[in-house]
Amino acid sequence: MTEVDIEKENAAIAKAYKELLKVSYQTLTVADKKLIRQAFDVAVDAHKNQRRKSGEAYIFHPIAVARLVAQEIGLDATCIAAALLHDVVEDSPDYTLADIEEKFGKTVARIVDGLTKISSLSKEADVSTQAENFRKMLLTLNDDVRVIIIKIADRLHNMQTMDSMRSDKQEKIASETLYIYAPLAHRIGLYNIKSELEDLGLKYTEPEVYNEIHNKIKESKEEQDAYIKAFSKVIEDSLDKEGLSYDIKGRPKSIYSIRRKMLKQGVSFDEVYDKFAVRIIYKSDYANEKFLAWKIYSIVTDHFIPNPIRLRDWISSPKSTGYEALHITVMGPKGRWVEVQIRSERMNEIAEKGYAAHYKYKEGNAEDALDTWIDKLQEALESNETNAVDFVEQFKLNLYSKEIYVFTPKGELKSLPKGATPLDFAFSIHTEIGMKTRGAKVNGKLVPLSHELQSGDQVEILTSENIRPNSNWLDYATTARARSKIKSSLKDEKKEVAVDGKEILRRKLKQLKINLDEKSINEMVVFFKLKTSLDLFYRVGIGSIDNTMLKDFASSRSGAIMSYIKSKIRKPTVVQNIDKDEITAKYDSLVFGKEEEKLDYKLSACCNPIPGDDVFGFLTINEGIKVHKKNCPNALSLQSNYAYRIMQAKWIDSSQQEFAAQITLSGIDNLGLVNNITKVISSNMHVNMKSISFQSDDGVFSGKINVVVKNNTMLKKLMENLKKINGIDKVIRV
Length: 734
Fold this sequence. Notes:
alpha+beta, Ubiquitin-like (UB roll), 6-stranded mixed sheet, Bifunctional (P)ppGpp synthetase/guanosine-3',5'-bis(Diphosphate) 3'-pyrophosphohydrolase, Hypothetical protein af1432, globular, 6 domains, Beta Polymerase, domain 2, 5-stranded mixed sheet, 15% strand
């Protein structure tokens, strides 16, 4: 770089630093500014010789992360300093954690230590899975929740500046973001950041889909703005008449949420029904907030008819993130649904800043909501018996859960995740009550333990001293807390049964003249197709492996030598088509890795890829390479947790092989519809119909067709032709 360039860059760095101080949400004191300046100087010195992949000086990254922390998340000077220093210990040999503590105090050092721990995880040479990294990362929640918050800001800036990376790296980081960081941001109440992380995640995992929706939103922007303006105008006069001070803003739906709706409802972009969203933010003192919210609600519903099942009142019972608002969906002009969010300025700040705004409004009690949340997650964090992937899945369950509110018999309000059952409720009150649950009453009526609770239910738990959890309970419990307690109770019980089982097995084998030793145990585990010796002893203990089965084992043991000799003499017969539905390809259609090698593989049953689909290979432990579609429901989890087992894969010439796919149709039944459908299928060359089933219910028609095609293009063509049939409304590939 020339001297002029260096000067320019230094000026840009100084400017970025000044901006950081200017945009801070908290008011910075002189001492705060001094602390931030000191952190900035250390960061500049530590990163002086470093550049990012894009070529710019590395110091821009910590400044950008600190800016997000200051402006978007609204944290204080301590966090801004920690964000500036987040890579210092890891990247520079000149600074140790002790230096940071000496210069900036214990809190900053603790946060930087947490962030360094997380960063150094993924660089360990042989971490068994990425999930193990996530687990360790989530465990740092215990150290200081601010670690995770700054980590989310760090991830957001990385996602914003990922263009110059290799595409496989982009995909791995984006999958990880959608899998773990977006749910975390959601749960901490950073809704704006969550939306941006999701949109960027989609941009790199499914670029075509992202660009298509992005362009459509762009095209319809003018029309949307005009619509929102017309909608607002109708209510503005009434709001003014009441002398309210307010602000009405249109709010674009995020690309990711539109995509999620399209998939969930099987609809096109144009059919997503509440792309329009309006936010009414009103000024109010704390005492009148609730009264004014409902006043505005009544004004909006005077003009527009509300959808009665889409009213959400988070003012009377806020979410556990502290989020408060009134949400209604109303029928706007031109017969379009519009989501209206009603919030006071205070509520709006909490919705945008979460943690930090609580701080501002509650003077020091800020951490209430966060603490209760972390206490809840503590359960999942403590149960270390589960393997890492289960642990992360369980943790995610708790992250994304929507909430319902139920009452105890005494009338106290408890929040539980949506889908919770009386069993979850029992464990949320106390582990002992959960363990002794005999039954439950909801609103005074006896219900099964699997009954799904609804907001507003009053729940009473009936207990008994003689009850113990049984394995069915796992089908009834949904929360991480309940499941981990039930699992550990069942494990203890299983161990007790297994101890008895081992003795029973020893006696029974003695009669069959077999010693119970390591060799015979291993042989039995294999013979009975089990996983561990504990399973073996447990099954003998409960009697599911009985005398007859053990005799079979004994005779197979003595017969093994004979059958080995026989098999050498006799020519083995080849079994044809032993596993027809998982086609192990013998054709030249799919190649793996950069070298485009041809390897044996199986097609995964969860998403049934066919030639032409975007796919990747996943190296399983027992079944070799399994091929998944890139938009398979399990793809994110696999790409995040097992990034090192993912193989690039693509289809090449697939002229020989045929693949099964299923299409579902729905529409309005009319005479000759089935005939038209079968005509279209038979007139499509190279499409072979395997099975077809239709049903008509009061004039509504639905059907399933299993076809065999050579590749994706043919399937798309067939679906397009089916869509053209009069009466058909939707055609979806399952």
